[in-house]
Known about the structure:
The protein is of the alpha/beta class. The chain is 34% helix and 23% strand. The protein has 17 helices and 24 strands. The strands form 4 sheets. An 11-stranded mixed beta sheet has the order 9-8-7-10-6-11-12-13-14-15-16, with helices on both faces. The protein has a 6-stranded mixed beta sheet with strand order 17-18-22-19-20-21, sandwiched between helices. Its cofactor is Mg(2+).
Amino acid sequence: MKLNELLNNVRVKQVTGNAEEKEITNISIDSRNVNENSLFFAIEGFKTDGHKFIQDALNKGVRAVVLQNPAALPDQIFEHYSAVKIVVEDSRKALAEFSDRFFGSPSKKIKLVGVTGTKGKTTTAFFLKSLFEYTGRKAGLIGTIANYIGDEELKTMLTTPQSHEINFLLDRMVKAGCRYCSMEVSSHALDLHRADYLDFDYAIFTNITSDHMDYHLTFDNYLKAKKILFDMLPENAAAVINADDPNANELVRGTKAKVVKYGASEKADFRIKEITYSLEGTDFVVVYKNKEYKLHTKLIGHFNAYNATAAFAVGLLESIDADEVIRAIKNSPQVPGRFEVVSGGEKKIIIDYAHTADSLMQALKAVRNIVGNSRPVYTVFGCGGDRDRSKRPIMGRIASEMSDKVFVTSDNPRTENPSAIIDEIVQGIKKDNYTVIENREEAIKKAIQMSEKDAVILIAGKGHENYQEINGVRTHFSDKETAVKYLNL
């Protein structure tokens, strides 16, 4: 695409240089991955400022740069490189707008379902992809575990990628024949304009509890960030919300979209009742327009009845036959690291991504609902570094009160001291039923070896992740692989 064609369709403050001569083949925010046909965006980040790398990008041949700080580099340097200088109000917002136009607004060419909430985003997105594909509709997925274009898997580092990566993925999905895409939409992504200019057909709200306070600072800010998704919905879209969450109505206040509610509430359009579950799966009933539908999923837990119902609602709103949707949910595979059961004789290991106080409590409630006090319950968990510190003692208290034995260990300490994180967790523990083992593999090993033959062991916090980040360095580590290793000894 010629740069001048792109500039004719976006908002800018100032353009210096000859845009007509420039051919743009890709968009980048990383000066290490550019060439002469790249359009480089200088983004002001939290740890570093992309404006510092404009010179590097120019040295690598970039001939067009978008920036919000016009004084970052003298105009003479742009002239020296025959480069176009494009000044915008906000580089992040511009990245979303430019990306949408550069890729031909792909979100308008596919049915896009956004899923937001503190918990359940990944599982709900997987339910949706499975539902669409089971009923003969090729689909993609953008999310925490991986990105998918049909059966093709692409690795991911963020729950919601940067806006140019989202549009690149959606464009590839459209070209690959995908009719639908389910997409996890994080509060960070919404607040940082990564989802701007996307055309959502559905937005699902799962729930909201305190999380990411290191970034949002207050719950109100967190809620406002989530609300952005519903504020941006057009009139022909649908907001599918959990009616049982006390903040649901606030999220859809003022939305142009049709509001559809699911949950146990009598006010729900898709009313959930008779939830039962075991280590074999979850059964429940959904009442919609005075008709009862019996559903089953292999996924375990009260919360998974809600996640499945959100997908069920979208399926019926899309006019897919209800029996087909029910079969699709029944056949949806286990989502990696989401209350995933690993067996070793009578002993059961549950791998779960629970990394907030509420998600840990819900996971342990699910375990206790299944086994009661008939089997011992062990919990192995830690807390991530460089993240919300306030949840650490709360999670310690919850784990101790709801488990027979707790192993407090390291999660992803990142740049923090692992033992300091553990000390903050232990401050919340009042019972003498815990052991501190900083090394995560050793903690999992001890929990498996020391527990009774019929024990249920919850390994919480990392779920699907196959790495551990210590001192900023990532090394391979999988809770599931480690559990299987020691179960089979």
